[in-house]
UniProtKB/TrEMBL annotation, chain A:
Its EC number is 3.6.3.25. Keywords: ATP-binding, Hydrolase, Nucleotide-binding, Transport. The lineage of its organism: Bacteria, Pseudomonadati, Pseudomonadota, Alphaproteobacteria, Rhodobacterales. InterPro entries: AAA+_ATPase (IPR003593), ABC_SmlMolc_Importer (IPR050093), ABC_transporter-like_ATP-bd (IPR003439), ABC_transporter-like_CS (IPR017871), Mo/tungstate-bd_C_term_dom (IPR008995), P-loop_NTPase (IPR027417), Transp-assoc_OB_typ2 (IPR013611). It comes from the Bacteria. It comes from Pelagimonas varians. This is Sulfate/thiosulfate import ATP-binding protein CysA. GO terms for cellular component: ATP-binding cassette (ABC) transporter complex. Pfam families: ABC_tran (PF00005), TOBE_2 (PF08402). One of its GO terms (molecular function) is ATP hydrolysis activity. One of its GO terms (biological process) is quaternary ammonium group transport.
UniProtKB/TrEMBL annotation, chain B:
The lineage of its organism: Bacteria, Pseudomonadati, Pseudomonadota, Alphaproteobacteria, Rhodobacterales. Gene3D superfamilies: MetI-like. CDD domains: TM_PBP2 (cd06261). It is a multi-pass membrane protein. GO terms for cellular component: plasma membrane. One of its GO terms (biological process) is transmembrane transport. The keyword Ribonucleoprotein does not apply. The chain crosses the membrane at residues 26-52, 83-101, 113-137, 157-183, 212-236, 256-276, 308-336, 356-380, 392-414, 420-440, 481-507, 527-549. It is found in: Cell membrane. Belongs to the binding-protein-dependent transport system permease family. SUPFAM superfamilies: MetI-like. This is Sulfate transport system permease protein CysW.
Length: 344, 564
């Protein structure tokens, strides 16, 4: 294991920001810390960066402890949401600053800066001041500055949140490309589940200072462990076990053997519908989203959300038949919490 | 794929992962520690001494001095005079200041730059220059008195009131102006659309918005009036106030303990006034919003011509008072031989111009040392936990509540005592530089802290992650960012040190004097024209400093053009 955080704890007065959190990052891996605001993800990133002190637990890199090493000696790269370029330095000086501190010769720095500017697709910007660049350009330079020193870990703190939608999508792909080609172990904090799904090799989903679930994007989407994860990662239909037993008894076949309180989670795109007279459900409303449509159904088990690709076979008011395969249903622990950001 | 990094340069030298003695923490401690030791040694400790001396009776402690002072008619008369003078000056300067600020920020007329420039003139001269100017204008041999053929009694209440008002006016204009600027143009547009008349807009929008500014300005004017010594010494005549009372106790009667008592009594109103002012300032800042649209007044003849005329009259008064001093310095024999000559620039008092050069050196030292000290303090405080930083911040903001006379008295009591090695500083130029810095510590400190508040923490964190230590971050990132604030603090400390009188008046010796004290001595010796000449020289130096500051800030602005 390359970077490990074991039992990291951080409290501010009576507020526990992190409660014995343990995570791991492999060499070359892209890991996303995902969660609503206030869940402790940024605190965890700052602990790893060395910008905040640990109250308990340990952080190790390649087996050696980092806990007492100040940020400036960790050789990490960091990119903030607010760009944070040095306003008094040109783009080239910003990128070369870390190298200058390490005593690299001016000639080598210049060569490296040119290379990095190519990499972030801003080759002509070397002499500009940060104030003369757009937000997206500034964030590219901030990325170049962070990777210039060949960091042992790249830390990204909501790097895309301040940008508008289009720039965000482009830069997201570029970050992924750069990370893949340089194979830098990367940890990114985000509250945007779509961003996490698109970028991460591994997602660590957090809430209230603890890790709720860690796994691949597919794991978290298709096999959420708790109600919180199910609701935070995209939209889902959550049905109480009694309702399932009454209306979809077939699905109970996969109910876990232990006696904990589970509820059924069914993703909207995994419910198949077809118009039928005297069907069990009625279409309440249809939203057209371009490539897909979202239908709200009224059925005896409660309201159901269904997504279909292509043209919808039904219209508002139609009655429909439902079919849900057993694999489509995941049993999640009911942690009885509403996520702060309601997924669309 | 990974040609970047591996092939083009040698691998970075990794610092070994070991627990290191953290140089940054030591540096942080030094940054806060050194200025803090300064504050304790040169502010807190002397203030304790002055208090202890006020309760020293013979060889023991007691309230004997207080009962004696409180029982003397002279003290009560001085107190009554100080409060009356403070109140009258405050009312007059806030009233005039509001008119000028309203003219500058809420009316449309040309030549506002002239009004702005003239209003601040009294700040560029020792406070006794206003008094000198009034004597040349309205004194027995004054230009106006002779022209009108009337005898005006300028020494006393009325002369002092005018001199103090001229001195307090710039502060009032700046503070009230800052409050008026805060009010968004859209608020007025909304009121206009809703049908509010200009008078209603003034009454319902402008006045409430300027409320804290006016309150704040009132307290500032009151404080600087009751603590000012220069005007009272030159034009006060028989109208004794607390500041002159301390001076006569200490210098006239060599009665230090009594001086300390009067000092403590003078401290009471200033501390109260200053703490209310700080609260008002916070309230005003809390009301600020971002994304404001500046108010652009349109021309309204009746309002604007009136306001321009009133502003012009006030400005003419200021120019006359200061200008007459410059003019008189060139007049051969006022008022009998009005031909011009340079003979008064040949200073006949012992020392001649040496005190002017000394003042420049001392002011430079106070400015350099002071700027470095408040920068280090601000830098270090950012890295300390709030629980430790808070009390230090409060201590750093305290000197503004202490009148210069009281601080000067505290210094003479502390440093003219052979009990501690601090005695070595007594009678040195260094001590004068130090007293000037701590006298104006608060303003310098608060200015730098404003700069630090605008500095995003992420900038320092980014530098840290790139491997920069505190020293390097301070030099490469922090200092360039707050450079404009540092330049302002430097010139502020320099200019105040050039013209201040109250704190240094006790610390000068026959061998070591400063400009403002020399002016006072020249005036005392009846060499009024020489005093005017010396004042003119001081004003010239300060004007050069102001110009240098403007040029420096303009150059810095041009260099960082394009930066946010």
């Amino acid at each position: 294991m390359y970077l490990t955080v074991r039992d990291a704890t951080k409290t501010y007065g009576t507020f526990t920001a992190l409660d014995r959190v343990s995570i791991e990052i492999e060499k070359g891996e892209f890991v996303c810390l995902l969660g609503p605001s206030g869940c402790g993800k940024t605190t965890l990133l700052r602990l790893i960066a060395g910008l905040t002190d640990l109250d308990g637990g340990e952080i190790t890199l390649e087996g050696a402890t980092l806990s007492d090493l100040p940020a400036r000696k960790r050789d990490f790269g960091i990119v903030f949401q607010s760009y944070s370029l040095f306003p008094n330095m040109s783009v080239a000086e910003n990128i070369g600053y870390g190298l200058k501190i390490r005593g690299i010769s001016a000639k080598e720095i210049a060569a490296r800066v040119t290379e990095l500017l190519e990499l972030v697709k801003l080759p002509k910007m070397a002499d500009k001041l940060p104030g003369q660049l757009s937000g997206g350009q500034q964030q590219r330079i901030a990325l170049a500055r962070a990777i210039a020193v060949d960091p042992r870990v790249l830390l990204l703190d909501e790097p895309l949140s301040a940008l508008d939608a289009k720039v965000r999508a482009t830069l997201r792909d570029e970050i992924r490309q750069v990370q893949r080609s340089l194979e830098i172990p990367t940890l990114m904090v985000t509250h945007d589940q779509e961003e996490a799904l698109a970028l991460a090799d591994k997602i660590i989903c957090m809430n209230h200072g603890i890790v709720v679930q860690a796994g691949t994007p597919e794991d978290l989407y298709h096999r959420p462990a708790t109600r919180f994860v199910a609701e935070f990662m995209g939209s889902s239909n959550l049905l109480a076990t009694e309702e399932v037993a009454r209306h979809f008894p077939d699905l109970l076949a996969t109910y876990p053997a232990d006696k904990k309180a589970y509820i059924a989670c069914i993703r909207p795109e995994q419910i198949a519908i077809k118009p039928a007279e005297n069907g069990v459900a009625t279409v309440q409303s249809i939203s057209f989203l371009g490539n897909l449509q979202r239908l709200e159904l009224d059925c005896p088990a409660g309201p159901l959300l269904v997504e279909t690709h292509g043209r919808s076979p039904c219209r508002t008011g139609d009655s429909v038949e439902l079919s849900i395969s057993t694999e489509a249903c995941t049993w999640v622990l009911d942690d009885a919490e509403q996520p702060e950001t309601t997924p669309a | 794929m990974s040609s970047i990094g591996q092939t083009t340069r040698p691998p970075l030298q990794r610092s070994p992962l070991r627990r290191s003695l953290d140089a940054d923490r030591l540096l942080t401690l030094a940054c806060v520690g050194l200025p803090l030791i300064g504050l304790i040694l040169f502010f807190a400790y002397p203030m304790v001494i002055v208090f202890l001396r006020s309760i020293t009776v013979g060889d023991s402690y007691g309230i004997g001095n207080y009962t004696e002072v409180l029982g003397s008619a002279g003290f009560w008369r001085a107190t009554r005079h100080s409060l009356t003078m403070g109140g009258a000056t405050t009312v007059l300067s806030v009233f005039l200041g509001f008119i000028i600020a309203q003219g500058l920020y809420r009316c449309a007329f040309r030549g506002k730059w002239l009004v702005r420039g003239i209003i601040v003139l009294p700040l560029l001269a020792p406070s006794l220059v206003q008094a000198l100017g009034l004597i040349f204008l309205l004194g027995r041999n004054g230009v106006i008195s002779r022209a009108l053929g009337v005898e005006i009694e300028i020494y006393g209440f009325w002369g002092l009131l005018i001199a103090n008002t001229l001195y307090a006016l710039p502060q009032a204009v700046m503070i009230i102006g800052a409050a008026l600027v805060l009010l968004d143009a859209r608020t007025y547009e909304a009121a206009e659309v809703m049908g509010a008349s200009p008078w209603r807009q003034f009454r319902d929008l402008t006045l409430p918005a300027a409320r804290f500014g006016i309150l704040n300005a009132a307290f500032v004017c009151f404080t600087i009036t009751i603590t000012d010594f220069g005007n009272a010494a030159v034009i006060g005549g028989d109208y004794s106030v607390l500041a002159t009372e301390i001076y006569s106790q200490v210098v006239g009667q060599r009665n230090f303990n009594m001086g300390a008592v009067v000092g403590i009594m003078l401290l009471l109103p200033t501390v109260i006034s200053y703490s209310i002012e700080r609260q008002a300032m916070k309230r005003q800042q809390a009301g600020q919003s971002t994304g404001q649209v500046a108010y652009q007044p349109s021309f309204a003849p009746l309002r604007d011509i009136t306001m321009a005329a009133v502003s012009l009259v006030i400005c003419a008064g200021i120019v006359a008072v200061i200008g007459i001093v410059v003019y008189a310095s060139f007049v051969t024999l006022w008022p009998y031989n009005m031909s011009l000559s340079l003979k008064h620039y040949n200073i006949t008092l012992a020392g001649g111009y040496s005190s002017l050069w000394m003042t420049i050196v001392v002011s430079l030292a106070a400015a350099v040392g002071g700027t470095v000290a408040v920068f280090l303090l601000g830098l270090g405080l950012r890295r300390l936990p709030q629980a430790i930083a808070q009390p230090i911040q409060i201590l750093a903001a305290m000197p503004a509540a202490v009148p210069g006379m009281v601080l000067g008295l505290a210094y003479i009591l502390t440093f003219n005592s052979t009990a501690t090695p601090l005695y070595l500083l007594y009678g040195t130029a260094a001590l004068i530089a130090i007293v000037n810095f701590y006298h104006y510590h608060t303003q310098g400190f608060l200015t730098v802290m404003t700069g630090f508040r605008q500095l995003p923490p992420a900038l320092e964190e980014a530098a840290g992650s790139l491997g920069a230590g505190l020293g390097r971050t301070a030099r490469d990132i922090v200092a360039p960012f707050i450079a404009p604030m540092l330049v302002s603090v430097f010139f502020f400390l320099f200019m105040r040190s050039m013209v201040t009188l109250s704190a240094v008046v006790f610390l000068t010796t026959p061998k070591l004097s400063v400009a403002a004290v020399t002016i006072m001595r020249l005036d005392d010796a009846g060499l009024t024209s020489q005093a005017a000449a010396f004042s003119t020289c001081v004003m010239a130096v300060v004007c050069v400093a102001v110009l240098s500051m403007k040029v420096t800030i303009a150059l810095m602005g041009r260099r960082s053009k394009g930066a946010v």
